[in-house]
Structures are given as C-alpha cells and as structure tokens.
Amino acid sequence: MEIAALRAINREREARRAVIYLSDVATGSGRVIREGDVVEAELTGPVRSAFANGKSTLVEAAGREWFLSVCAPEPRLVIVGAVHISQALAPMAHIAGFDVVVVDPRTAFATPERFPDLRLHAEWPEDWLRQQPLDPYTALAAVTHDPKIDDFALTEALRTGCFYVGALGSRRTHAKRLERFGEAGLSADRLATIRAPIGLPIRAASPAEIAVSILAEVIGALRSRGIEETEV
C-alpha cells in the first residue's frame, strides 16, 4: 500500500468515516474508496455490501480478482435517557459490539449503580454533544419521553445523518414531536427517517423486551446502510 493511500485511510478513520482499500490481486495495485464514490459497474454490488456488513472480502469481477479491505469505525449507540429500557439495552448493545454511551441530566437516574461498567454522562444532551458530536456511524435512541431532554438530541441526530434515529412514545406523542420539529424547519424527508414508536413491532411489553426490539432495529439499520436506497 502506498503512503498516500495509508494517509488517506488514517484521515478517514480519525473522522469516523468508512473506507475500502480495493486492490487488484494479480497486480497488487489499489486505491481508496469512500462511501458514495462511483466504482466500476461490476464492483458496485460487492463494494456496497462490504460497506454494509463491514467485512473484508475477496471477489471476482470483470474477469479479475479483487480484495476489498474494509476499514470502518466502531458503530456507536447513544442512548438518551437512563431509564429501565436503557438498563437492558446498554449491556446488550455492548455485547453486540457497539460503543455504548448513556446520557441523561437527571442524576437520580444516571448513576453508576444502575449502569455499571458503561460510559455514563449525567449531562444535558446539548452539553455532551458539543464535545462528542454525532456522525453517520452512530445510532441514537431517545427514550426519556421528555421533549426537554429528547428533542435536541433527535434533531441533532437527523442533522448529522445518524444511521438510526429512534424515539420512544405513542403515535400521538410522535405526531406532536413531528409538529414541533417541522415548525423548527426540519424537512418532511428527514422527519420520516425517525423510527417511532421505537423498536421492531414484536409486541414487546417489558423493558427488556422493548430493549431487544430496539437493538434488533438498530442492527438492521446498520447492516442495510446504503442498500435500501439503491435497491428501491
């Protein structure tokens, strides 16, 4: 790999953006591909799939062998709200390979005793996000049911292109949320990406079951990044 390519990869990694180093197995020549870059028609499918599943792979295309070396940031899950659902969701997401962060300004909820061995911040989301901005490899789940806490984080997640944006609440609650966000200037297209009511519709009842439904939805969103749009 050339020094220029290595430097380009390192820049993307520092910015939490995924890249693929595409190399011709026969010649050893290669190049860096960023998400959204145009590639040869025969490589479009394999490149898209590699970005989605995060796995390096060897493929045959146009009569040649190519190795796709994927360098993707660790997916992050930011949970806004240190509630009962979060107590189940956070450790499960950590086991699934996510970098998990729980943010809640309510110090009665955001305690190390309730969230042992996890990154916990007893801060308002707007204060924490000034230091830790969101990005397209971040999922955000807002579960406080309190607009004063959830709204800023949700709008910031939409603005920065988080791969998953979910919010707890009934359809009536979400309708009011959409009205507030629309009045704030967010487009209908962006608002349509919010997963609400949050989680897959598995008739979840307990906090742990709701956490399972959320995590499954987050994983589905992560692994279908960039695929659903191109296959419509």
Précis, in short:
This protein has 232 residues and is of the alpha/beta class. 31% of the residues are buried.
Low-confidence stretches: none
CATH superfamily of the largest domain: NAD(P)-binding Rossmann-like Domain
CATH topology of the largest domain: Rossmann fold
| Strand element count | 9
Give me the side-by-side strand order of the main sheet: 7-6-5-8-9
Radius of gyration: 20 Å
N-end to C-end Cα span: 36 Å
Q: What is the overall silhouette?
A: elongated
Q: How much strand content do the residues show?
A: 15-25%
Look at the structure and give the mean pLDDT. Answer: 92
Structural domain tally: 2
Q: At the first level of CATH, what is the class of the largest domain?
A: Alpha Beta
Question: Keyphrases for this structure?
Answer:
four-stranded antiparallel sheet; Rossmann fold; 41% helix; 9 strands; 9 helices; elongated; alpha/beta; five-stranded parallel sheet; 2 domains; XdhC family protein
